[in-house]
């Protein structure tokens, strides 16, 4: 493995400095060796048998009964090998850009005119929050109005700090991450123009890319527009105390070898921010999905690095809307149960099913909206 990587690196060494093209190496998820330790920890975690405050509602976090149920399933009804095999059905790669390793899924369409599409995940979703939409997007779909075929070449990177991408340097903000991912698309994969979609933390990065790389990002779609009250002044004026996510080292270290702790922390977000009808209708979110995301996070050892970026970006979520210097259009998809529905004045599609994790909360609706963007891109770029 190491030898072949070195060999590839040697082969790709630019001769006479003529080429700076990065090497791309195939990648397979291979985390089974961590499973016995994970199983031991999960099995040996003693949770209380009764809730301390039975009447405390969801505002106080995950309820004990749910956590205990998930713990039991993790030990007795969950097979990591199956999940790993499902992930490895996607074509995955790593590349090195500067000092950073970037892991990404790259699923190409059979169609030669497919639209390049970059999908940027959030926390705690990881690449797993897009799995149901990737393959359908690569397939040819005929627009009933124009009779034109639309399909995509889909690129889904692990944002730096998540899973198999390296953790960004301590001083990086969304601006440097935006630059890195644009380099992935334009230099490494040689898509000079592309469309992008971002959600949650990935929406912050996507917005930055939309604004900063206006010749390559030619259409952008969001399920969340990253403009958020309150401002730092509002926080000070209203005596708002920042929650534990703002102290990523504390929570990151406290839960680093505590899978049930990570399950509570990540699981509460996945449950509270998605449609309460999760697991029914178009939603693919059930306890297995949640255990998949937490297992990936725990086994790859990236819980701490994945929460780090929130504090690195005090200005990531801007409060004053400034129109970006781009003539590329923007799409906005509103999902009924999403958090931060703060997109006043932006036109878009409204969906009455789904929440914060649209790619697993309501995959068909997100696919439909992305195809609408694809129709525009194919006609104009
Ligand atoms: C368009 O896609 C359909 C499948 O949806 C396929 O049968 C047809 O051949 C495609 N047309 C063109 C012009 O590629
Ligand atoms: C981060 O720190 C490194 C090393 O001190 C420095 O070279 C780099 O310019 C810094 N980057 C940013 C974005 O501040
Ligand atoms: C914030 O705290 C200060 C000092 O305790 C107090 O005077 C002020 O009324 C508080 N403001 C709000 C909005 O609660
Ligand atoms: C969750 O859904 C998947 C299919 O989408 C299924 O394979 C799995 O068994 C479900 N898990 C539970 C606990 O029902
Ligand atoms: C890109 O942004 C620059 C300013 O940052 C602006 O001058 C230029 O017109 C923009 N180009 C497009 C295609 O929007």
From TrEMBL:
Native source species: Mycena sanguinolenta
InterPro entries per record: AB_hydrolase_fold, Epox_hydrolase-like, Epoxide_hydro_N, Epoxide_hydrolase
Domain of life: Eukaryota
A Pfam family of this chain: EHN
GO MF term list: epoxide hydrolase activity
Residues annotated as signal peptide: 1-17
Entry keyword annotation includes DNA-binding: no
Keywords: Aromatic hydrocarbons catabolism, Hydrolase, Signal
Protein name: Epoxide hydrolase domain protein
Keyword Hydrolase: yes
Limits of the Epoxide hydrolase N-terminal domain: 25-130
GO BP term (any one): epoxide metabolic process
Family per record: Belongs to the peptidase S33 family.
């Amino acid at each position: 493995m190491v030898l072949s990587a070195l060999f590839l690196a040697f082969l790709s060494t630019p001769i006479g400095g003529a080429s700076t093209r990065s090497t791309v190496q195939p990648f397979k998820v291979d985390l089974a060796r961590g499973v016995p330790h994970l199983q031991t920890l999960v099995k040996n975690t003693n949770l209380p048998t009764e809730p301390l405050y039975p009447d405390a509602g969801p505002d106080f976090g995950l309820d004990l009964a749910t956590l205990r149920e998930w713990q039991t399933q993790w030990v007795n009804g969950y097979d990591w090998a199956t999940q790993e095999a499902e992930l490895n059905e996607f074509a995955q790669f790593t590349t090195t850009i500067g000092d950073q390793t970037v892991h990404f899924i790259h699923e190409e369409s059979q169609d030669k005119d497919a639209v390049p599409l970059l999908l940027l995940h959030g926390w705690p979703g990881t690449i797993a929050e897009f799995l149901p939409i990737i393959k359908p997007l690569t397939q040819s779909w005929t627009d009933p109005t124009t009779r034109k075929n639309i399909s995509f070449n889909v690129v889904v990177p692990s944002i730096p700090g998540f899973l198999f991408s390296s953790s960004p340097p301590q001083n990086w903000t969304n601006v440097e991450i935006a630059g890195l991912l644009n380099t992935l698309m334009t230099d490494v994969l040689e898509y000079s123009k592309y469309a992008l979609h971002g959600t949650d933390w990935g929406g912050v990065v996507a917005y930055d890319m939309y604004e900063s790389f206006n010749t390559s990002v030619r259409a952008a779609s969001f399920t969340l527009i990253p403009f958020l009250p309150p401002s730092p002044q509002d926080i000070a004026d209203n005596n708002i105390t920042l929650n534990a996510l703002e102290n990523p080292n504390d929570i990151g270290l406290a839960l680093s070898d505590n899978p049930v702790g990570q399950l509570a922390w990540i699981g509460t977000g996945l449950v509270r921010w998605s449609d309460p009808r999760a697991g029914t209708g178009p939603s693919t979110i059930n306890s297995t999905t949640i255990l998949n995301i937490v297992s990936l996070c725990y086994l790859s050892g990236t819980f701490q690095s994945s929460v780090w970026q929130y504090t690195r970006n005090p200005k990531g979520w801007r409060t004053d809307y400034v129109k970006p210097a781009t003539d590329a259009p923007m799409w906005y998809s509103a999902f009924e149960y999403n958090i931060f529905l703060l997109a006043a004045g932006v036109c878009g599609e409204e969906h009455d099913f789904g929440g914060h994790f649209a790619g697993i909360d309501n995959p068909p609706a997100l696919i439909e909206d992305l195809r609408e963007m694809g129709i525009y891109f194919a006609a104009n770029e």
